[in-house]
Specification:
This protein has 329 residues and is α+β, with helices and mostly antiparallel strands. The chain has six helices and 15 strands. It has an eight-stranded mixed β-sheet. Helix 1 crosses helix 4 and helix 2 crosses helix 4.
């Protein structure tokens, strides 16, 4: 018989041992966690943004598909307020039923998600659309009462940061200035609460996947958990206070004609509680994603078939959990 904590939403993570329906098969377990990687580039956006900054981002996007940014312009107060309000949401007993009453556009997942073997993820998740912001926020959670004001402020600032980063990537690729101006900013927020785990070697917070976004901007606070695949090995991304992790999504790999890399990643658990906030900057659903014409030549023909973003998402699976299914020519 399963532990009551395995089925009771209010107590399922408050256990001394990992329940069997949260224990992954041995071949999929993270096992002994590798040390934190200190080679992932950390890029300072607070200084003059020159050719060196562009080159650092470009190289990181080719070699790792990930980089961290500091002095990014999003204030510590905004980060602190957003973290606090999300912690309040996940601690609230109202989180599991309040979106079932009336019109809403957000989804709370108390670890209903599971892999093909029926093993549950060691996490709780809140996900909702963000664009157009003024319209979407009217249907976000209303508990805590300040949720909508705090999170909309956060997303506005992260959207500005995303535009700055895309402008720098645009320069690195040699595309015309403003190439990404038509993209509409943060389309989706996904916040994850990872409770303390009695044995992180047995569980996973998020399965291995590639992001279907253009770029993803992640805030992971002070507790590491994100792992990326590098040369066939999982490496753990260090957690830096007030830093953002940025990763290249599938759509940007397509637009760059394979120059930049969308890299597989996953989330492992910890003996400490962890909160992460992922903001996905995506094309609009009808946008036809294909290699930029300036990057397609006779010597470097198009490597991917054109496809609308909506087609890509629905053919690949749920956002943030699908495998890489880029259609190459």
């Amino acid at each position: 018989m399963e532990s009551p904590a395995a089925t009771n939403p209010s107590s399922r993570f408050d256990v001394e041992n990992v329940p069997t329906n949260y224990t992954f098969p041995e071949k999929d377990r993270p096992g002994e966690l590798p040390p934190v990687c200190h080679t992932l580039p950390v890029i300072d956006l607070g200084k003059a943004l020159d050719a060196e900054t562009v080159n650092l981002i470009f190289k990181a996007s080719q070699e790792f598909g990930f980089f961290q940014v500091i002095n990014h312009g999003v204030s510590e107060k905004i980060l602190g307020d957003t973290t606090d309000v999300l912690k309040e949401f996940f601690a609230s007993p109202e989180k599991e039923g309040s979106n079932s009453c009336g019109k809403s556009n957000w989804v709370y997942d108390g670890s209903v998600n599971f892999d093909v073997n029926g093993v549950h993820l060691w996490r709780e998740n809140l996900k909702h659309p963000c664009n157009p912001l003024e319209e979407c926020m009217q249907q976000w959670p209303h508990h805590p009462t300040r949720y909508r004001d705090v999170v909309s402020t956060y997303l506005t600032e992260v959207g500005k940061l995303g535009k700055r980063i895309l402008d720098l990537i645009c320069q690195g690729l040699g595309l015309e200035k403003g190439y990404f101006d038509g993209f509409s900013g943060v389309e989706l927020l996904s916040a994850n609460s990872y409770p303390p785990c009695p044995d992180p070697s047995l569980t996973l917070g998020i399965l291995r996947h590639y992001d279907p976004s253009l770029i993803t901007i992640l805030y992971q606070g002070d507790v590491p958990g994100l792992q990326i695949m590098k040369d066939g090995t999982w490496i753990t991304v260090g957690a830096m206070s007030n830093a953002f992790v940025v990763n290249i999504g599938n759509q940007l790999e397509i637009i760059s004609n394979g120059i930049l890399k969308s890299v597989e990643h996953r989330v492992v658990n910890s003996s400490e509680a962890r909160l992460s906030i992922a903001a996905f900057i995506n094309p609009s659903p009808s946008y036809i994603v294909e290699p930029a014409q300036a990057l397609v030549t006779e010597l470097n023909p198009a490597r991917f078939k054109p496809k609308s973003y909506k087609e890509f998402v629905y053919s690949s699976g749920a956002l943030g959990t699908h495998t890489k299914t880029l259609q190459r020519e």
